[in-house]
Amino acid sequence: MIRCITNGIVLTMNSDREIIDSGAVVIENNLIKDYGSIEEIKKKYDFDEVIDAEGGIIMPGFINGHCHVSMSIFKGIGEDVPDRLRKFLFPLEEKLVDKELVYKGARLSIAEMLLAGVTTFVDMYYYEDEVAKAAKEMGIRCIAGESTLNKNTPDSEIPYGGIDYAKSFIEKWKDDELITPAIAPHATYTNDAEHLKIIDEISKKYEVPILMHISEMDFEIKMFREEHNMTPTEYLESIGFLSNRIIGAHFTYMTENDIEILKKHDVGVVHNVTSNAKSARVISPVLEMREAGIRVGLGTDGPMSSNHQDIISVMHQYTKVQKINCGDRSKATAIGAVEMGTIDGARSINMDDTIGSIEKGKKADIIIVETSTPNMTPLYNCYSNLVYSAYPSNVVFTMVNGQVLVKNKELIRSNLKEIINDSNGLKDKVYSVVGPQQ
Ligand SMILES: [Zn+2]
C-alpha cells in the first residue's frame, strides 16, 4: 500500500535540515519511501490513498525521552507544597499503584501524547508490562523500563524485585516492533553498585537500554560527596557502569568533569526542563552538553512533575529558561529545540537509524502541525513557529509506524471518552488516600 501526505511544508530534520515548501511524503506500508516537491512526487507514483496536509507542517513525530505515564492519575495533587514526595506521592504509590491504575494512567498519557504529536516515549515505572500493553494497543512507539529500587515497590515485596520482573518483561517484548523493553534502575541513590552491575549485565545480554535518574536531586549530590567524595556521574564511572546503553534523565547538577565523563562514555541525556523548573531545581547545562557533542533529547518527566506530556511545551520552555540563564537571546535557538525534540531526541535514545527525521527508509512516524490558526499565522520560519508560537493542540494528524492514530485532531484507534471516564473513575481512590483537594 502506497500513501502520500501532500500539500504541506515538509520539515525533514535530515542532516541538511532540508525544508520543502510545497512538499509531499510517500509512505509504503510502515516506511517512508520518498519525499520531495508535490510535482516531482506526483510524476513518480500512483497512490492508494492521499492525505491532504492543508498547508500544515509535515514533520517527524516528537520524542518524549523521559516520563512516567501512569502517574497521570495523580496529576494536580498536592501542588506547590514543600516535600510533596513524602507527603503525597509515596502514600499514593504505596496504596494505589496496581495493574489497573498503571494501565489506565498510561492510556490517559498516551492519548495526550498522540494528540500532541508525540510518536515515541520512554517510560520508567512499575508493572511496566501494563504500560507496554497500553502502548501496543494504542499504536505508539515506546521504550518501557521496569524500575528497580533498594526497597519494596508496588509490584515487588522484596527490594530489587524489579530485576526479575524486568528479565521476564524483556523476554516477552524483546522482538516487538513498537515496544522496546528496558531495565530502569530508579536512581543513583536507590540502587547500589552490586545491583547496578547485575543490571548492566542484563542490559548487555539482552541488548536493551538502561533508563535512570542521574544527578537530579540536591540531596543526591550531597550524599555522593559525603560518602564517596565524588559527583554521582563520577561515582557511576568509578564502578564501570557508564555506557552508550544508558538513557539518563535530568543531569541538572553537573560539573565540567561530569560533562567530559558523559562524552567519554557516550551516555544519552534527556533534559526535562518543565519538570525541573516546577520543582525549583537548578538549570541543567544543556547547551554545554550539546556543545561537547553529547546526545541530548527532551522529556516531560511524570505528569505529577510537569503536568503535561507534550514536547511542544518543553521546547518552548527549554529555549526561554536557557536564554534567561545565559542572559543572551541568541542562545538556545528554535532550531536547536526542534532538533532535540526530534532527531537529537532519537539519537539520545539510540533510535536515530529508524526514527527522528523524514528520510527514505525510516519508519513512518509523521505528524502534521496546522499553520492556519491565528497563533501560527504568519509563518516565516517553521522552527520559530513550532517553538515560540505553537500549542500542542495545533497538531492535527499523527501517524506511527505507518498507522494513522490521530486524524483531524481526534484519536481514531482508541476511544478517548472511555479513557477519560476510566481515569476519572479512579478519583475516589485517590481522595481516599490524600483527602479533599482544594
Ligand atoms: Zn523522572
Describe this entry's structure for a reader.
With 438 residues, the protein is an alpha/beta fold. The protein has two domains: 2-60 and 364-416, Urease, subunit C, domain 1 (Roll), CATH 2.30.40.10; 62-348, Metal-dependent hydrolases (TIM Barrel, Alpha-Beta Barrel), CATH 3.20.20. 39% of the residues lie in helices and 22% in strands. It has helices spanning 38-44, 84-96, 99-115, 128-138, 161-173, 193-206, 218-228, 232-238, 256-265, 273-278, 286-291, 312-326, 334-341, 343-348, 382-389, 416-424, 427-434; strands spanning 2-11, 19-28, 31-37, 49-52, 57-60, 62-67, 118-125, 141-148, 179-185, 210-214, 246-250, 268-271, 296-298, 366-369, 395-400, 403-407, 410-411. The longest helix has 17 residues, at 99-115. The model has no long low-confidence stretch (mean pLDDT 97). It binds zinc ion. The site of zinc ion (ZN) has 6 residues, from loops.
Which helices and strands, and how do they pair?
Layout: E1 2-11, E2 19-28, E3 31-37, H1 38-44, E4 49-52, E5 57-60, E6 62-67, H2 84-96, H3 99-115, E7 118-125, H4 128-138, E8 141-148, H5 161-173, E9 179-185, H6 193-206, E10 210-214, H7 218-228, H8 232-238, E11 246-250, H9 256-265, E12 268-271, H10 273-278, H11 286-291, E13 296-298, H12 312-326, H13 334-341, H14 343-348, E14 366-369, H15 382-389, E15 395-400, E16 403-407, E17 410-411, H16 416-424, H17 427-434
Parallel strand pairs: 1-4, 1-5, 6-7, 7-8, 8-9, 10-11, 11-12, 12-13
Antiparallel strand pairs: 1-2, 2-3, 5-14, 14-15, 15-16, 16-17
Helix pairs in contact: 2-17, 3-4, 3-16, 5-6, 12-13, 12-15, 13-15
Bound molecules: zinc ion.
Zinc ion binds at residues 66, 68, 213, 249, 301-302.
